[in-house]
Write a structure and sequence with these properties.
- By secondary structure, this protein is an alpha/beta fold.
- About 40% of the residues lie in helices and about 20% in strands.
- The chain has helices at about 1-20, 40-55, 70-80, 90-95, 150-160, 175-185, 200-205, 215-225, 265-275, 275-285, 290-295, 305-315; strands at about 30-35, 60-65, 85-90, 110-125, 140, 170, 190-195, 210, 230-235, 245-260.
- Strand 5, helix 5 and strand 6 (about 170) form a beta-alpha-beta unit.
C-alpha cells in the first residue's frame, strides 16, 4: 500500500512538471511546429509554402500551424508548443525587452532565423469618404485580434494623428473576421498588417470596391521618429485594383526559432528558403521578395547559430548569442 502511494505521488509530481512547462518537452529533433497566423493571412499562406518545401527537401519536418499571430507565436514557443514562429519585428523586440505587449514579462529564449519580407500597415475600408486616418474618429474600426501585433500598430498610427483607442469604436478581430464585418457593414474600417496582397483583402476586392487609407509624409515622419522600426512604403494600385497608390508604413516579417532547436534543423530551414527561393516564389508571391542582405539585417535580436552558419557560408557575419 505504501509503495503504491509513493508511486501515485511521483506520478502526480511528474504530471505537474509536464503541465507547468506547457508541452513540457521540446519537439523531437527534425520535427518542428511553425506558428504562423490566421488562415487568411500571409503568415499562414507563405509559412505553409516554406514548411512544405523544407520538409520535402531536407530531413527536417516543418508543420505550419494556424495561430493568433506574433504575440501568440512567441508565447507558444516559450511554452514549448512551437519551435519556429513568424513575428513582426516590433513585437519580437517587445518580447525580448519586456515592453508593450510583454511589459514586465520579457521572453528571450529565441533567436533570429531571418527577415523575409516587409509587412504593410493596411487600413482597409469600403467607404470612399474615409480618406485619412483622421477620418476614423468616431468610426467603428477593427484594430487586430488578441495576440497579434496589429493592435499596437493601430495605436501607433492613430497616435501619430493625435487619436487614441477611445476616439474610435474599436473591435478586435482577425483579418478574415474584419473582412466579413466590412462586407456586412458592421465596421467602417480595419487595420490589416501583413504582406500585400493579403488573401482576406484580395477576396474582398474581388467583389467590392476597396479603398486603402494613406498616411501622409508629415505623419509618417512623426511615427518613425517615435517608433524607428517602421519604414515608409507604397502599395501599388495594381495590388488590389484601387484607384491610386497607397502610401503607408511597413515593418519586417521575421522567422524566429527557440534557442534549443538544433543547429542542423535551423540550418535546413534558412538554407532551403534561400537555395530554393525561385521555386518558393513560383508558389507564393512573397518568395520574390526574399533577399539575403535583408534576411541578415536584424541587429537587436541575435541570430541562431544554425542560421549564422548558413550566412557565414554566404560571406555574411551576423550577431549570435
Amino acid at each position: 500500500m505504501k509503495k503504491a502511494l509513493v508511486f501515485l505521488i511521483s506520478l502526480i509530481l511528474a504530471t505537474s512538471i509536464l503541465v507547468a512547462g506547457g508541452s513540457g518537452e521540446t519537439a523531437k529533433s527534425g520535427e518542428l511546429s511553425f506558428g504562423t497566423g490566421g488562415d487568411q493571412g500571409t503568415y499562414y499562406g507563405f509559412g505553409s509554402v516554406l514548411a512544405q518545401r523544407i520538409s520535402s527537401e531536407t530531413d527536417t519536418t516543418v508543420t505550419a500551424v494556424v495561430s493568433n499571430g506574433s504575440q501568440d507565436n512567441i508565447e507558444m514557443m516559450d511554452m514549448g508548443y512551437y519551435q519556429l514562429g513568424f513575428v513582426q519585428s516590433d513585437v519580437m523586440s517587445y518580447a525580448y525587452d519586456g515592453t508593450n505587449l510583454f511589459d514586465g514579462n520579457p521572453i528571450d529564449n529565441f533567436s533570429t532565423v531571418g527577415a523575409l519580407y516587409m509587412e504593410q500597415v493596411q487600413i482597409v475600408t469600403l467607404n470612399p469618404d474615409i480618406k485619412t486616418v483622421a477620418d476614423l474618429e468616431g468610426k467603428t474600426v477593427s484594430i487586430g485580434s488578441s495576440g497579434s501585433g496589429v493592435y499596437y500598430n493601430a495605436i501607433d498610427v492613430l497616435g501619430a494623428y493625435g487619436l487614441t483607442e477611445e476616439d474610435i469604436n474599436p473591435t478586435y478581430q482577425s483579418f478574415g473576421d474584419s473582412v466579413d464585418a466590412l462586407q456586412d457593414g458592421k465596421i467602417d474600417a480595419a487595420f490589416v498588417v501583413a504582406g500585400a496582397p493579403t488573401v482576406a483583402v484580395s477576396t474582398l476586392a474581388s467583389t467590392r470596391d476597396v479603398y486603402l487609407v494613406s498616411i501622409d509624409d508629415e505623419h509618417i515622419e512623426a511615427l518613425i521618429e517615435t517608433s524607428p522600426y517602421y519604414s515608409k512604403y507604397t502599395i501599388d494600385a495594381s495590388v488590389y485594383g484601387t484607384d491610386e497608390d497607397c502610401q503607408t508604413v511597413a515593418i519586417a516579417a521575421v522567422v524566429i526559432a527557440r534557442d534549443d532547436v538544433s543547429d542542423d534543423d535551423v540550418y535546413n530551414v534558412i538554407s532551403t528558403i534561400f537555395n530554393d527561393k525561385d521555386a518558393i516564389a513560383a508558389s507564393h508571391n512573397k518568395g520574390a521578395e526574399l533577399d539575403l542582405a535583408f534576411a541578415s539585417s536584424i541587429t537587436n535580436i541575435p541570430y541562431h547559430p544554425g542560421a549564422a552558419r548558413y550566412y557565414s557560408e554566404q560571406g555574411i557575419t551576423v550577431p549570435v548569442k
